[in-house]
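Trying the structure run again after the queue cleared.
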Amino acid sequence: MVQLHHHAAAEKEMNGSLHNASKVQFYANNSVYPFGAFERFTMLTQQQLATMLSLQDKMNTKVNPAWLTAGYGYLRAAMVESVEAIEHHGWKWWKAQEKDLPQLQMELVDIWHFALSACIIDFNGDISATASQIASELASGEQHVTFDGVNYAFANQSLLDNLELMTGLCAAKRFSVPLFMKIVEQCDMHADELYRQYVGKNVLNFFRQDNGYKTGTYIKVWSGREDNEHLVEVMDALDLNDANFSDNVYDGLNARYPSA
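Done. Tokens:
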């Protein structure tokens, strides 16, 4: 199985396990499907991948134009977020705990931000090559991952065990996209919802920065409601499959934002 690595030393291992491109099929809606493995529930379209990767690159560049070579620990960040996801799931056998699904989903969106960043670095900033690699992983239909000499069939594991496995992989500077998408499914999310939440969070961050978030002049409450509430309404009124979805979200927020 192809796994994303955050360091160049793993390049040989990654390249040696690339899947044959003939295993990928593209349908009318540009979704990538495997042969008899992952359900459409876990498929991200080519357009969605391109949009998310482009947004991630732009956000990282906004923080630091030289982010590709800055040496940031993106998979370390993903590891920490994975641990937080375990906390939201609940793991203490000696006390009653309830799974906090909304918080779990939010953690997954954060993890995806860091994973995409690590993948873009692996391909030296080439967004197209990064999108193709992720699509290849999703199309592979792989439902196993080998870690520390042990083969894990994550398709048959519990959500908690898979969160723990993802944490371990991130600590070892590795990331499995198929494992992540299985966790997304186990958290009652589908690919479209991951895309929706990811784009929404990114666009809102851009909007805040463009309207004085750093200087303290940004207005977070509009017409008696916080900006994230407006964001939900804006996204609900838009076509998720529109190639300009992220731009449309930004324009929708801008139309609602109080003018000076």
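The CA atoms of residues 142 and 234 lie 36 Å apart. Worth checking whether this holds up in the mutant runs.
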